Amino acid sequence: MILNNIKMAATSIREARIRSLLTMLGVVIGVASVVMTVSIGEGIKNQVVSQIDQLGNNVISIRPGRAFNLNSSGKITKINIDSLIGTSTLTDKDLASVKATPGVIDASYSAMITGTVSTSNIPNYTNATVLATLPNNNQVLGQKIAYGEFFNQASSDVATTVIGSNIANDLFGRQDPIGNEFSFKGQQFVIRGIMATTPENPLNFGTDFNNVIYIPFNVGKQLSGGNLQISELDAKVASGSSVTSVGNAIHQALLNNHNGQEDFTIIKQTEYLNATNQVFNILTSFIAAIAGISLLVGGIGIMNIMLVSVSERTREIGVRKAIGATNQQILSQFLIEATVISLLGGGIGILLSLLASFIIRLTTSIHPSLSLTTIVLATGVSTVVGIIFGMAPAIQAARKDPIEALRHE
Amino acid sequence: MSYYTSVRKLIAMALIKLEHVSKVYGFGGATTLALDDISLDIERGEFVAVMGPSGSGKSTLLNIIGLLDRPSQGMYIFDSRNVSHLHNRSRAKARRDKIGFVFQNYNLLPKMKVIENVALPLAYRGMTSLRRLHRASEILNKVGLQSREYYLPRQLSGGQTQRVAIARALINRPNLIIADEPTGNLDTASSKVIMELLSDIHHGDNTIIMVTHNPDLTAYASRVVYMRDGRIHQDKDLGIHETADITELHNAPSVDEVELIEEREKVKTKKIKAAKK
Prior knowledge:
The structure holds two protein chains of two kinds.
Chain A: H1 2-15, H2 17-54, E1 59-64, E2 68-70, E3 76-79, H3 92-100, E4 104-113, E5 117-118, E6 129-133, H4 137-141, E7 145-148, E8 160-163, H5 165-172, E9 181-184, E10 187-195, E11 212-216, H6 217-223, E12 232-237, H7 243-257, E13 264-268, H8 269-312, H9 314-322, H10 327-363, H11 372-398, H12 402-407
Parallel strand pairs in A: 6-11, 8-10
Antiparallel strand pairs in A: 1-12, 1-13, 2-3, 4-6, 4-12, 5-9, 7-10, 8-11, 9-10
Helix pairs in contact in A: 1-2, 1-10, 2-8, 2-10, 2-11, 3-7, 8-10, 8-11, 10-11
Chain B: H1 3-12, E1 16-25, E2 32-42, E3 47-51, H2 58-65, E4 73-78, E5 81-82, H3 88-98, E6 99-102, H4 114-123, H5 129-142, H6 158-170, E7 176-180, H7 188-203, E8 207-211, E9 223-228, E10 231-237, H8 246-251, H9 255-276
Parallel strand pairs in B: 3-8, 3-9, 6-7, 7-8
Antiparallel strand pairs in B: 1-2, 1-4, 4-5, 9-10
Helix pairs in contact in B: 4-5, 4-6, 5-6, 6-7
């Protein structure tokens, strides 16, 4: 009987194609917007997380200034924007202290230098983040070199450079960048290596390593008139050691260096990950809830059309009852019809969001991620919407008096 | 009572037995008495024509007999079962399994093919699609419309449509067929075809109750029940091909009056006898 009802529902949907489509539209838009929101949110989260993750969970970063306040359970309670523009308080002494901390394998720091890069073809390239750093930086951060090599101790005073993959593409296109040159602040730099491509981050949350130009710290220092502020200090923790305890030890060592002043922030990747996950989950569910309102509207649309349909088909209901349909059979007929409409709408919505995801992926750097859970959930939700909003019309149909219904014109 | 006699009694019992059935519509002061204390037995194999002016309670009677409605008072025994106070669900099942309806305006579902329309009652029994359609095809063959199986109702003539409706009424092998002015929308030729078909069905040992305004059609019936003001005014067996005379039926004293007269006669004779003594 259920199969029969589904068949009948399909027939009546086919018969009133335009109307059914319009009825579905609410659910289509509702499901599509919820699924889109969730998949974009998930996608961005995944990208951010993978970007954080690629640095490895065993890296501890120390930034100058107190970037945010944490409560006892490690959650961020306040973000201090001021700290981002303050003068750096990190020094070579701090680097030595961090290196000396037990459990730290290696440590490095880098400094950001603002300015534009020029080649003979491209005069003022602004997309690069120029970081002056130490020769061991890529090993500390676990970054891979795709071609060539990172500058070493011997070349740390020479104007050599390693560039991110985007920079290589932008500046040199099809040419081989290695051995090529660009100028920065009047200094010619020879390219020694190209970094491997790292996952993109659509929000530019932190540094995009594909857009980085690494130059030796000493060279950078000369270009900046001998005064270069350390913008980040990174420590690689030995695999056997606990990141938290090493982090605490570094914290203590730096406090000593800074006369007890906490004018730096220690960022452990795990904390960063947690915070990011937290923020994105809240954001995604909030926007999805707003999008869910359209689903509600879609449900009401279904109810409205089903009520019209029941009243139009009063006579049919009368005939069906006369030939022996029970109230329950009439109820399930209309309930199934509403559910089929809603499910179809949900299906179309999912397909639409797949298409939209595809277009977004092609045209932006966001990679929406549509998980099976989301699809199953969307299907479930549209079924529930159909049942909930189909119930009232179906009950109305089932309760019709057969004699009255047969007389209905 | 022995088993034998109880079985005998069951067999002997009329298919339809109405005892003092009344039907009241409306509430409070605005009530109408549609059926007024009707008692009626219809045996298996009868072809009863129900006649009477509009508003005389024919439809109400048919609705109650067809289990679409419940009597306000009285008892209704259908197929040896008291169905006066059945729940909606049981009444629906009884309609499905034991009663076939034929309506004046056919009442086929316009969006379903002829064969699907005919097969629909079986769907509510939970029969598989294949078996349903097979049965429907057989029945359509009986009414001579097998070639129209996959037409839509609107593609058929009135007479053909009514034959489809009759096929639908027959498909669950009902104990009773209720026809509410089956030829009301048809021309004479088509009416004749439909009545011949109903007559054939009747001769196949089926019970038919038919409401009609056309006295000529009573030629096919074995009995005529004439209603007036919610009561059975006349109830008369008809011979083969005998038609009822509607004016005579209308003007004849009511069954109750006759009973009353008979009662008076009895009292009179008693009195006379007593006087003689």
